[in-house]
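Worked example 3. Consider a protein that binds manganese (II) ion.
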Amino acid sequence: MEMTLRWYGSAFDTVTLRQIRQIPGVKGVITTLYQKAPGELWTREEIHTLKEEVEASGLKLSGIESVNISDDIKTAGPLRDEHIQAYIETLENLGKEDIHMVCYNFMPVFDWTRTELARVREDGSTVLAYNQEAVDRIDPERMFESIAGDMNGTVMPGWEPERMARVKELFDLYRDIDSEKLFENLKYFLEAVMPVCDKYDINMAIHPDDPAWSVFGLPRIITNMENISRMMKMVDNPHNGVTFCAGSYGTNPENDLPEMIRALRGRIHFAHVRNLRFNRFCREDGSQVTSWTGEKIPVGKPDFEEAQHLSSDGSFDMYEIVRALHDIGFEGPIRPDHGRMIWDEKGMPGYGLYDRALGAVYIQGLWEAIEKSGR
Ligand SMILES: [Mn+2]
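Given these inputs, the predicted complex is written out as structure tokens:
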């Protein structure tokens, strides 16, 4: 594995490349051209400039998160082919700049969904949290306003104000899109981009839907092993793989994360590792769920909050997650995921420096111990 940190670029991120360079073991960043609209072409020159900036700090540009997919591609809208063509050319330009991993997602309207960006925990840190009752109560068109006050003045990926101003229009766009149509449109997209991925050895790594269930009646397809298998079979190419995001798949406690990792050997191109704590969960019929770690989760509409990376602070067994990645011989970029806001840092919720740095070091500690104990 190659330890990395996500970085939004010098114009947007509160964390600097210099700071990232000083985190033990972090060799690269995962970044993006944050100002680019989905469907827009990334020129080779723009990519080259970004890469030079990263390399000047002593880090590697380990991959892109994300080259976003336009709504026309997701809904088979009138500009679909034009946007796919721009995506293909973007991949070509990335390949020429020796960049070989591209993360993307196929979520309708909202990117990841949380109801709180700064839930205060016992130790005074703040974290992102999700409460199903709050989601059920809220008018989706008001979703953005409800969390905008907690963004610390940052622009959050997938929650850009320009995009949220069009949220009603977006809901209309997805009115006739069910999960079957979404799968069909994903297939169309993947078939179109695989040749350029083959040519430049670019791994496409789809990010799961977060949380791993339908929100506001919108379809969500990248949620469990069955659906990932379907996605990989429908365009059967090793470059068609996944971002294994523990915190996203893990929102459903019935997703056995280590088992999924083992089943995905060879198709995990990027890993996001973080922990969360379940406060309540139940199946749709209201029945209790025992999570893959054996935890009996209190019954109720889902409520979870992000936790420290440490196993002891959340519901996941981080040792088992890292061990599974180690066992499958995972060599791709990995990053700590959302961190808590601690030590009075003000930054993009989930993407401050301090707690993610702690996460990066903890994951590497687990990795080292697993590697040495296996000898
Ligand atoms: Mn993730």
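Take a moment to read the result before moving on. The pocket of manganese (II) ion is lined by residues 207, 245, 247-248, 272, 337 (CB under 6 Å). The chain has a mean pLDDT of 93.
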